[in-house]
Fold each of these.
Amino acid sequence: MTDVTDSAWLVEETGFGPEGFDRARANYHETIFTVGNGRLGTRGSLEEGHLGQLSGTFLGGVYDGHEVPVIDLVNVPDWLDTAVYVDGVRLDVDTCTVVEHRRVLDLRDGVLTRSTLFEDADGRRTRLETERCASMADRRICALRLTVTPENHDGQIVVETGIDGDRRNLEALPVYPAGTVFDVRTRWEKWALAKHMEQTARSAADTLYLQMRTLDTGVELGFLASTTFATPPVHRAAQQRSERVTERTVHGGAPVRMEKLVAICTSRDPDASGPLPDRCRSALAEQEGFGSAGFDGAGFGSAGFDGAGFDGAGFDGVVAASRAVWEQLWDACACEVVGDERFTRALRFGLYHLLITANPDDPTVNIGAKSLSGEGYRGHVFWDTEIFMLPFFILTQPDTARALLRYRHHTLDGARANSREYGTGGARYAWESADTGREECPQFTPDGANRFWTREEEVHVSADVAYGIFRYVEATGDTAFLHDYGAEVLFETSRFWVDRVAASPAGGYELRQVMGPDEFHSHIDNNAFTNRLAQWHLTRTVALYDELRDRHPDVLAAVATTIGLKPDERDRWQAVAEGIVGPRTVAGVIEQFTGYFDRDDIPITEWDDNDMPRYPKGYHHFNCETTKLLKQPDVVMLNYLLPDEFSAEVKKANFEYYEKRTLHKSSLSPSIHAIIGMEVGDTTRAVQYFERSVLVDLADNQGNTAEGMHIASAGGTWQILVNGFGGLRVLGGRLSFTPWLPGDWQGIRFRLRWRGRPVHVSVDHGHVELLLGGDAGGTEGVLVGGREVTLTAGEPVRVAR
Ligand code: BGC
């Protein structure tokens, strides 16, 4: 059971009495209590389900588009699938009264613990306790432990547990009058549902095996479950029906204690070889002999394995191995607002969700906009990865950052095909990417009423990918990545830009018909963000080309052969980089796009309970085109991404101008305003934006956490800690810290990894303390408040602020 002594690591749900289970917030809890391991995520639904549940397990990279207009991240078989009966009465929140209900997610090891006391109509009280986790040590393994304890009766206990493959994805909500409110018990039933899997194999003997195949993409998914009981059941029957396998055990005494271990293997796993059932079996067998410790071999699990003696550590063993990996993960990214438990927990909560959604071992997957915690955005990958989440991984978990960037290389063919479709060459990354890299962005809102232009016009994503690659290499020194994968991506995407630009009548090049990060304005020309990032991308790529030509001609030759690069292409990249038109600037304010300054200035006059702007009366997402209102930062974002290219005065002028006009209708938005707000001295607003960002999911302040985590916001929040309060910028290739702390904070602490060495940072009101780790003798020159400081490995340095 979870050690509850350090509540800054614990996220809790507690309820007593008739409302012990808060049904209205159940879907929210399902999201925040997602357990996962980077390869898969399982929402925090009750094991036995409830009316109105939105349950799901999602495996990175498993998509399917069968008979749906937009490809989905598949809601794969449910490995929890467990129900308990007491004298024939099902223990669930729909049948029984909930006397007490408590769940705790321990962020340290990703174990979700539950204790629910049910009372049935005859007054029988039974406590149901569970613990579950997805192993970080072996990403194929999930584990559940269940204990059933009668409190005032000796009724007969029956447990049913199995694998349920009869799953659907939400497809579309039919059009109902605006403002229609659905009962929480039935709200998801109104949706059209999409079926993405069919059963290909099933067996229910001593172990339970279910194999499903995705209908269009043909991915085989194998789920093998093995259970053990502390005391042997008096009766056991395996049950099979279409797309579901279960076992039913009848118990002669109480308490009943079950451990269930599930191995999940798929035909798309990077190292896949051999029949899936065999792979699942060996995955279970590798769990140090699951099946019995303390259980006296009472389980059924081992029989299917020819009595091979799975007498190992069971559930506790899985958790112990997983915890050891978690310890390493946390060691690399430990962070804290000293003395403030609420913010510390919220920061760690965001990092927990980042850690359970990124897989360093699979370079063919990436992170969807709602992570693996829900179906929102159908699991599609956006610029959110490179701009919002990647900085966290680059600076704390560089192997994961590398894998995330390798996904862009893996999907390069898809990006090439996207570019061809739009009449350009090279590679153009999809605004919404899934398994192949082809563009998956829908053109209309689900009700068909409004057209989105992001698919066609939000082309900045290709420059964002380039940005991520260069930042990764700068922080890690991983030139091998650049040579093996990065250069090809950068050259191909540079080819896209030179075809995408148009000659300007005034000379130079323009980028017309685009949309910047601010999605209120479509069909615009010369978006300051897009033009500048495309230019930066081309300039850096030319420099890379020259470096390879001069120092690694063999690497250049290999890439050139692969992509048929011609000698004059480099000069064309340079010509376009030098010729891209710059934005109009008035009194330091950079015009967001050509003609922006002429649009209607509609004041923002109302703020919501979170102190965030409301749409001015009469305005909504689809009619802000003619105004200066912004959905999210665009120029301010640019100021942040290229810190050494804009003066302090320019940053201040742009923040002051655009902040008044930004509605923050994306959860990505507040983090950027928090960071730049601190830099330019608007610390009051900055702290408000921090609170909005750090609590976005825990406080559900967007109102839609039920559909999945705002995972980019978690990455943005980490950047507020490190780049905002910590004041970190990389200037001229060096770490530079100019911290700022709110008066009522004692301090902050965080850890980074820079060029292979850990850097521990601690800030209070008087000092910055830095400790460089790694091999003795290593040094690193950094800036603190603009002053040069040399760090030597193992020697803490304390600098007055
Ligand atoms: C934002 C985009 C973001 C997407 C997915 C949209 O609302 O405007 O910037 O990429 O959500 O998170």
Amino acid sequence: MTDARINKESDPMSEQTVTPDPSCADDFDPNSLSVIEALARIDTAVSPIRGYQKLALRDALDRVLVEAIDSPIDVPAHTNSAMDGYALDSRELADHGNTQLAVIGTAYAGKPFKGALGPGQCVRIMTGAVMPEGSDTVVMQEHVSVEGERILLGGDHKAGQNVRRAGEDLRAGARVLEPGTRIRPAELGLIASLGIGEVRVARRPRVAFFSTGDELKSIGETLTRGDIYDSNRYTLYGMLTRLGADVVDMGVVGDQRADLEAAFRDAADIADAVITSGGVSVGEADFVKDTLNSLGQVHFWKIAMKPGRPLAFGRVGNALFFGLPGNPVSVMVTFYQFVQPALRRLMGEREPATITVPARCTGRLRKRPGRVEYQRGILRRDDDGGLVVSSTGEQGSGILSSIAQANCFIVLSSESEGVDAGAEVPVQPFDGLI
Ligand code: AMP
Ligand code: MG
């Protein structure tokens, strides 16, 4: 990856003054950065990684194309039948009344009829079979009566019906996929339908992460008084893996300057991006800040959002750096809102925006103005088919079960003072990442 040193004039990450929160009851903080502004600064600071791989098609699942895919062939390659029925020349169709035709053979998918149709003749044809010479129309088998080697059909048919024309889906040379497209199962199929067996995709970004905190124990260790199990490394592992990153789990690092510094150096040496959790809240921020000052260019933001107010962003060595808050829900929210779009951009993906849909709220949602809130919700269809969303209840930023029950974020704007039951609210479905 390139060393995108940020020039001072256009520094997209200019620092916010950190002032102590005067009161927990006051959610408005004039020094905080809006979510939109933070996203814009991150977007400016991240550019796609260089380096690609040529992969066999199946191995390219969930990777991002670095090349355009143009169709080397007409799709379909041959004019063929869209139905099981009888192929005939439309000039045989009587304007009124019935037509009688002799069946002279059968065309199967992959086994074309070799001859040509003469006057008064038709060919039995299966879906996908090449249209025999001299035919341009297919009559569905349900619409004819068969009498021995002859068929009888009524007058209600149109010339050219039930036929898929060569190239009607794609013309040879047509642009099929743009660079920056993520390859999902549908794209795998589409590329395969063109006979293309290898594609060029961006290399996987390597993302190293570790948790910070003296209270953290790993699974298998015994908890002593005041300890908790580290869960952030598991949620991060899951989200990063689903996003297609090459993950490096660096474990737990205690709150000691020397250990932290060594961990940051090691991570920045091997990774395109480094993610940590914990240690960026007021009180601890100075400590991590100190450690990072000598290693890179990192800015500590207070973002006008809940949960997840503190966020550190910048570079450590040549790696992008995200210092996420410690609370487990805050980690997932800040990852979803900021790290996800940044990593998608790093991977060269073209459309990183998360989708928001409107839904009717089943209950009252409480909120104070001053910051955007991402409440955990359950989105479903009601009996009328409309989208409704209900809160998972308790919204504390340490309550992981609130996000495990949820399938979406309910996004309440900074100005919002809460909403009444029945109000329409914007909702972000998790779309498989969380
Ligand atoms: P901090 O941001 O370091 O002050 O942490 C805020 C809260 O999140 C504290 O209650 C921590 O114990 C908790 N926390 C920090 N890191 C983790 C982690 N890796 N797993 C679970 N909880 C954590
Ligand atoms: Mg901590």
